[in-house]
Amino acid sequence: MRPLTKKHDFDAAWKTILEAFEAEIVELLFHELFTEIAWELGTESLDKELQEIQKEIFD
Hints:
With 59 residues, the protein is an all-alpha fold. The chain contains 4 helices and no strands.
């Protein structure tokens, strides 16, 4: 069997999907919360902050 030489960045793919459809995902999964968000103000990804929180929890 030939070894796989190409690695896939699945994390980046998920981030792209979540950013592209963030409003739709929030509306589907958290409908009550969706109506409280001022979407016209835009959103900001806080993935670096989430990584720091995860380090604190799992270290």
